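mind reviewing this stuff:

——
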Amino acid sequence: MDYFNSAEAHELVQITGCSEIKAVHIIKSRPFHAFDDLKLNKINQKIIDGCLEILVIKENLSQLLKKCEKISFNLTQRIRPLLDNVELNSSLETENLILQQPHYLNSE
């Protein structure tokens, strides 16, 4: 119900079967407390199903982003000690580090 109660017109028209006119009708008919309220306000099942589809997609994307953030965090935690080690030893082992682009890669 939150989506129908809070979505703006440009978000509602993304629902399959929801025109700008229907989006304005949905906004004017708020608030909705249950799915029966939608049907009482002549919001058809196709729009309700389309909304559910959008919500499933948003939830899937949210879960995917959380997984990506976790992977990024774990990768950062694993790389950080390597980078810290390079910084600590850089004054002692600079001959083993590549500090500039190799000459054969320069276009000059």
